[in-house]
Amino acid sequence: MANQLSVATGASPKHLPDTKHHRARNSNFTRRSTDTMQIDSFASTLSILLILHLSTTLVVSLADEDYYDPVYEEKNNGKAPSLQGSQRDSSGESDSEKKCDCCCGVASFKSRIVGGQFAQPHEFPWLTAMIKERRLYCAGSLITRKHILTAAHCLKGFSKEDIMLALGGHDRKDFYRGKDDEVETRKIEKVAIHPQFNASNYNNDLAIITMDKPVMFTTRIRPICLPFREGGNYTGNAAVVVGWGRTAESKPTSPFPQKVEVTVLSKSECDQSGYGPTRITDNMFCAGYLEGGKDSCQGDSGGPLHVYNKGKSTEIIGVVSWGRGCARPNFPGVYTKITNYMDFINENIESECLCSHV
Q1: Which of 172, 246, 253, 255 might form a disulfide with 297, Cβ 3.0–4.6 angstroms?
Q2: What are the start and end residues of every segment in region (Disordered) (predicted)?
Q3: Angle formed at CA 52 by CA 49 and CA 56, multiple of 5 degrees
C-alpha cells in the first residue's frame, strides 16, 4: 500500500472489472471486488469500492461440545461458560446477545498508521479471504467460530459451492499453493443476504456466511468485536481499513494485506461530497478524506473498517461496499453501517455466542 490504500484480490488483471466497459446503472460508481458478479437488476456489472474500518467482534459457538479451542479453553479453565439467562453486563452490551467468557477484537499490533503500509502478519486475525476459481475477489471478517460478516454484493449471483474461505493467512499466494499449513480453509454451508439488499444502489449491502465447520481460535485466527452499542456515532473517529486489493486504480493487487487510517466523515460531509445529498442512505457512511489520497480499492469489498474502543479492543463498524474510483478527491469510500444491523446479525449467528470486549 502506498499513500492510498487500494485492497484488491489475487486475480490477474484480465479478470478484474474493466470500469471503462463494465458499467452499472450509474456509470460513475465502481464495485470493489475483483470478479464479475451477476446481479439480476444489472444489465452489466458494477465495480465496488471497498473501505475498511477497524471494529471487531468475537463470537464463539458452544454447539460443538467436543471441539477443543485452546484460546477459549484457557480463558475458561477448561470449562464452558454458563449462559443461564440473558443479562446485560457492566459494559452496557445488549442483553439480547449471548456472551461467552472470552474476549474479541484482540489485534496483534496497535501502532498508529501514518500512511498506507503492509499489515504485519496476522495483525488482523479476523480477516478472511474469499476465493473463487483460485482468485481472491472479496474479503470478510470472522465474528464467531462459524460465521463471517461480508458484503451482500460479494455473494449475490454466486453459487456458494464455487467459493472457498481462507483464514489465518497473510501471503495470498499461499492460499492457492498450499504452502502454509496453518491457513484454514472452509466451504460455505449457507448464506444469509440481507432481505432488503438493493443491487442498484447497494443499500443494505450486508451478508452473513455460515461455514461448513467451525474454526479453532489461535493467535492467527480470532474474531472481531461487533459495535459496542447500537446507533453509536463514530463521526470523527480514526478508523483502519485493510485488504489485499489494488494499490491504486491502475496498479495490481497486493500480495499481502495493506492497511490505512481513514477518518469517519459526518453525514453532512458525505452529502457535500461528489456523491450528492441523495446517494448515501441512512444505512451507509463515508470514511476517508475529501482531498483524497487514502482509500481502499478494487478487491477490498466485504472487508472490515474498524476502530479501537475505550477498552482497547477492536470493533468492526463498517463493511467495504462501494465508491467512485480509489482515493479520488471528493469521493471517499462508502461503507455499510454495522450498527443498523445488530438484529439481523444476532438472528443469523444461530446458537453461537459473542465474546466480550476487552
Answers
A1: 246
A2: 1-32, 74-98
A3: 145
Question: Which among 35, 69, 205, 295 is annotated as catalytic?
Answer: 205
Using the structure block, give the residue that is written with the C-alpha cell 453486563. 89
Cell 453459487 belongs to residue? 159
- State yes or no: is 205 an active-site residue: yes
CATH of the domain at 151: 2.40.10.10
Residue of 272, 288, 349 whose CA lies nearest to 322: 288
pLDDT digits (tens, 9 = 90+) for 183-216: 899 999 999 999 999 999 999 999 999 999 999 8
pLDDT band at 261 (very low <50, low <70, confident <90, very high): confident
Residue 232: pLDDT band (50, 70, 90) is confident
- Which of 53, 147, 153, 170 is catalytic? The answer is 153
Residue 140 near residue 128, CB atoms below 8 Å: yes
Residue 267, phi then psi, degrees to nearest 5: -60, -40
Q: Is the dihedral of CA 32, 37, 39, 42 positive or negative?
A: positive
The number of distinct structural domains making up the chain is 1
Question: Would the pTM count as exceeding 0.85?
Answer: no
* Position 175 confidence tier, pLDDT thresholds 50, 70, 90: confident
6, 33, 55, 301: which is the annotated catalytic residue?
A: 301
Q: What's the domain range around 30?
A: 1-358
Query: Is residue 39 pLDDT above 80, yes or no?
Result: no
For 287-356, the DSSP string reads EE-TT-S----TT-TT-EEEEE-TTS-EEEEEEEEEESSSS-TT--EEEEEGGGGHHHHHHHSTT-EEEE
- Burial (CB count <10 Å: 0-12, 13-18, 19+), residue 291: exposed
